[in-house]
Predict the 3D structure of the following.
Amino acid sequence: MKNQNLQKIEQLWYKLYPNQKEKLNELIDFLNSKKDSITYAPDDKLWYKKGLVYSCYVDLFAGNFQNMKNKLDYLQDLGVTILWLLPILESPMKDQGFDISDYYKVRDELGGNESFFEFVELAHQKGIKILFDVAINHTSIEHPWFQDAKKSKNSKYRDYYIWSPTDQKYSQARLLFKGMVNSNWTYNPETQDYYFHRFYEIQPDLNYKNPDVLIEMIKIFAFWKEHGVDGFRMDAAPFLWKEEGTNCENLIQTHWILKIFRASLDYLKEGTALIAEANQPPKDVVAYFGDSDECHVAYHFPVMPKIFLSIAEEDPNYIIDTLSEKVTPPIPKDCQWFVFLRCHDELTLEFVEPKEREKMLKYYLLDPRWNFREGEGIAGRLYNQMNKDYKKVLLAYSVLFSFHGTPINYFGDEIAMENNEEFYKKMTELTGYKDSRYFNRGPFDEEKMHKALTDPASDSYKVFHGIKEMLTIKRENEDLFTTQPTYQNIDGIFKVTRQKENKALTMYNNLTQETKTIDNITLKPYQHKWQITKQ
């Protein structure tokens, strides 16, 4: 009897490529050739549902993988269980590695493949899972495929990309980098036509209507899986398939592709997680979980700005409404949301109401240069956005940790790192783009880390140890964190309760500027308290 995963691949394949049996056989032959060579699999297949994700750029956090090894004890001490490595693959670095020129090679300045493989093994020994970024929607213009494709219409790799004699095709596809990129098409003088890109012109989109592209991507996943990578964050997942007359987002064919990725990886060996980077409303994002047969994890983008808005307006209802089923539908049991305060990108305002966007810009756009995409986002570090008030920073973390989802910590936020003016200026000059996200992408502040570990009077110490204390409670009561929480707004206090059998955890988050008393507990302005009770 045919394996279920192979059945699924075959069924979906013929929906995408009705007359491509030969290519299907090529894919299945490849999977069979790899099946016995993959020996590593995480002990716990649901590893992505527990602990803390730490997100970092290797070069900016530690310099290279040799130095990353020395940082593992620091991460373990904080309570990190999952390390999300922002782009590490070969790249001209015009978009901090999201422009990949070789999918099989870790950048030399990071130490190359061998150094990475050694690091993965050591991280696993310390109980830390590794996931990294793969831009599945596009490559760099310096990728050999594109270099060959742009030279001639007869290139072997021509159909790996999307070409048009005019720049009018897919006219309903929105501009994702409004204010920085004026069109989704760029002229190629060598073949006198245009290539399609959803991001910068240095990132031409791949053409998944060509089955060779899909097979290539599965081969890439299999290579890294074979070397111990636990999960892949699939950058720009909603944009894979393009159809005229649509906005080219969230199309059913995109979901079929992702299901083929999942079935292929599961066929090789279960336990590798696929993370969808789908910056969409939750009602659209839940589709990326499929019926537990697509992505394991997705990001909950809309709740992020609501945390900030709730603190600014002293009103937990912004959060409670966003997490309610009318906005966030239920998801399959084996799937998970990743939730976060900040990341390498902007604090996105794409999916808040216009009036809420105005409020957010008023409260948090403390410097006009932090503006991203003409008011659709605010760049900058968490500590800066909270006006350097460590109490608000810890309050925001307490709120985040109370959600049903796995929290992400963006590197440096745990030590109250600040915006990096020097890095912003340097990258603006280097790339030519006034991309405000460079404020929050500067190198790790070793001095602040030292303070976080040794100077109790510093904000860095207070933030680091405050987060660590919360994570210790979380780790020691992981059973409670698997339960569905109850969210309440009690006079500006965001009260969150979790209960399992005879044990309960109550998290009190005072979002107001006033001292409040609740359940005989007094909370100072912006204070949080967690209480465990046994019955």
